Amino acid sequence: xxxxxxxxxxxxxxxxxxxxxxxxxxxxxxxxxxxxxxxxxxxxxxxxxxxxxxxxxxxxxxxxxxxxxxxxxxxxxxxxxxxxxxxxxxxxxxxxxxxxxxxxxxxxxxxxxxxxxxxxxxxxxxxxxxxxxxxxxxxxxxxxxxxxxxxxxxxxxxxxxxxxxxxxxx
Length: 170
Fold this sequence. Notes:
By secondary structure, the protein is an all-alpha fold. The chain has helices at residues 2-82, 88-146, 151-169.
């Protein structure tokens, strides 16, 4: 009977030690995931800030370009008026200069709209990457906690081991 008691004690101690190690591993995985998530959040914020700064610079540059095109159009109309020509030709040339300036401004507006749309797509991509990373970390945490044997499982395995030992002795 001493052999049976010793076998059961060893089996129980082994099962509890394995459970304790699995709990510690799961807790370590959780702590690591929390740190990784914080890092992912910081990375997301940095990338979002950089993308927003890039869009801001693009908008400022576009505003300068639009102003430059407006000035060029006004200068062209001024040169046409200063040429001292008269009649329908001056009106047509002046209208053409204004049309060219307006077309250039519209092209800049379209480029700016495209940059804004690209910014939105980039942010959606960054959010998807961040969410994917979160999901991976949550999956790792779940897997680690799923590896912990329940106390009932440890006790059941100990009882099974005890029965097997008893059967082998008798």
